[in-house]
Amino acid sequence: MKQIAAFTSITLLLFAVVFLIASGKKENPLSASPNVIFILMDDMGYGDLECYGGYPYHTANINSLANGGMRFTNFYAAQAVCSASRSAFLTGCYPNRIGISGALSPSANIALNPDEETIAKLLHDKGYKTGMIGKWHLGQKAPFLPLSYGFDEFLGLPYSHDYWPVNYDGTPLDTTTARGKWPTLRLIEGNTPVKSITTLNDAATLTTMYTQRAVEFIKKNKNKPFFLYLAHSMPHVPLAVSEKFKNKSGAGLYGDVMEEVDWSVGQVLKTLDETGLSKNTIVIFTSDNGPWLTYGNHAGNTGGLREGKGTAWDGGLKVPFIIRWPSQIKPGTVCNSMAAGMDLLPTIVSACNAKLPVKKIDGVNLLSLLKQQPFAEPRTEFVYYYDRCSLKGIRKGQWKLVFPNISQTYKRSSAIGYDGWPGKYASDSVKLALYDLRTDPGETLDVKEKFPEVVRELTAIAEKYRKEIGDDLTNQKGSEVRPAAKVN
Questions:
Q1: Nearest to 318, CA basis, from 231, 389, 382, 369
Q2: How far is CA 341 from CA 124, 307, 362, 419, 471, in A?
Q3: What is the distance between the alpha carbons of residues 209 and 211, in angstroms, rounded to a whole number?
Q4: Most buried of 53, 121, 260, 445, CB within 10 angstroms?
Q5: SS3 of 111, please?
Q6: Residue 458 CA: distances (Å) to CA of 76, 232, 406, 477
Q7: Domain 383-486 belongs to what topology?
Q8: Among 58, 82, 124, 236, which one carries the catalytic annotation?
Q9: In sequence order, what E strands does 190-257 have?
Q10: What whole-number distance in Å separates Cα of residue 210 and Cα of residue 215?
């Protein structure tokens, strides 16, 4: 009997140990490093998604992503233009800190400096497999393509697909004209051009092509941690959509394009489910800047915010931002705190237990917001730069102070085009003004006379940024600016 009792005790003890180990595994779902998928749209507005009030087309898969994670209502791109914004997402820096501004054309003589440590490089150093698919726009040729910035793989375009010798209606341009002199647009794999994109029908294949490659990347790397940067060319003009979505949305070409992009997100999420990776994969969805309103019905929706792409008003910089991480983020949550494109790098590398860059960055870690920690507010300030290095405004809390400047405007009928043809650019003279974004998100009512102390406080904070990263409007170069790479 004693032997039986001893055997029973040992058996129970073993069961207890196994139970504790199993319980420990359940309580620690992050024993493996999380995968990261960063999906970036091009020129998609704050009001373009159903979950942000967009209509009349449907974005069911993106809705599902938001329902399964956290949706931000005060997320800002670093600048309201392609290259500058993308540099901030990848490096954690305001673009002018690292010498990047505007949209780099095929003839640009600068590129993102390979000395800057991108998310891809930091995660690659941690042992991640890294891949980029889609629009790069930080250097038009090797050695300034993604493989030089920490990516193991690249398939995509070197810049926006409107940099090509093709007219707005899809016909070839006269090569003696300025736009007709653009080089042939080429799809690049690694560092090698592999296909020419010369027609709107070619452009219509991009979303499906990118999506198929993304699915392949996920399946190929399902047994190792990975970082996938999927940068769609759409809904940037010229709009183009595959036959399977053409005339299907009932909301014109823009609606068709948005529903194809939504399908793409659905394919990524479906693949994560099929490979068993959903729970421990961070999926981020956002846009590089607001809509290019000069294209009228081929442009997106600001959700009622002022102006759009190419300006320092909130319609140009405030964009949708959704993040899902089932093991860490409570589903169906909304975050009203301020965040910005520079914050992706410190947030992602922290989540993945990787190292921060050696050089100074401007981003802050958003994990406290994702975990809904009480009173968390990692970002309290945001500065609105545009043009090369013009500090046009600053936000702190609910307040936005706008400095005197010249701004592009869409508030003239001639500024809006139709069916793929742009309107004429127009500009306005902007005066010093203070806006309360809590009650006036459209930036319509100047309250500087009522709150002079707020004007003084924000002006003093702005001076700190001028001294550090410059301001062309006040002729300050900035003491902590790093140069972009020179392109021969």
A1: 382
A2: 20, 20, 10, 31, 20
A3: 5
A4: 260
A5: strand
A6: 18, 36, 20, 20
A7: Arylsulfatase, C-terminal domain (3.30.1120)
A8: 82
A9: 192-197, 226-231
A10: 9
Nearest to 389 by CA among 487, 484, 290, 486: 484
Give the integer Cα–Cα distance in Å for 177 and 260: 33
352 catalytic residue (yes or no): no
What residue spans define the domains of the chain?
A: 35-379, 383-486
Percentage of residues in the chain having pLDDT higher than 90: 93
Of 18 and 267, more confident: 267
DSSP 8-state symbol, 415: G
The pLDDT tens digits for 167-183 are: 999 999 999 999 999 99
- CA atoms in the 13 A half-sphere facing the CB of 124: 18
The CB-side HSE value for 211 (13 A sphere, CA atoms) comes to 20
Say if residue 238 is preceded by a cis peptide, omega within 30 of 0: yes
- Structure tokens that stand for 416 in this block: 């809006």
137 among known catalytic residues: yes
Average pLDDT of every residue of the chain: 94
How far apart (Å, rounded) are the C-alpha atoms in residues 344 and 326?
A: 18
Residue 429: both structure tokens together: 């003279």
Per the omega criterion (within 30 degrees of 0), is the bond before 235 cis? yes
Peptide bond into 422 cis (omega under 30): no
- CATH: 3.40.720.10, 3.10.20.310, 3.40.50.2000, 3.40.1440.60. Which one for 35-379? 3.40.720.10
Burial of 302 (0-12, 13-18, 19+ CB in 10 A): buried
Helix 82-91 to helix 344-351 angle (10° resolution) is: 30
- Give the whole-angstrom CA distance, residue 302 versus residue 289: 10
407, β-bridge pairs: 428
Catalytic residue among 58, 124, 137, 161: 137
Q: What percent of the chain is modeled with pLDDT above 70?
A: 94
The single-letter DSSP state of residue 166 is B
Does residue 450 contact residue 327 with C-beta atoms inside 8 Å? no
Which two three-digit tokens encode residue 172? 């070839």
Q: What confidence score (pLDDT) does residue 32 get?
A: 74
CA pair distance 249, 257, nearest whole angstrom: 9
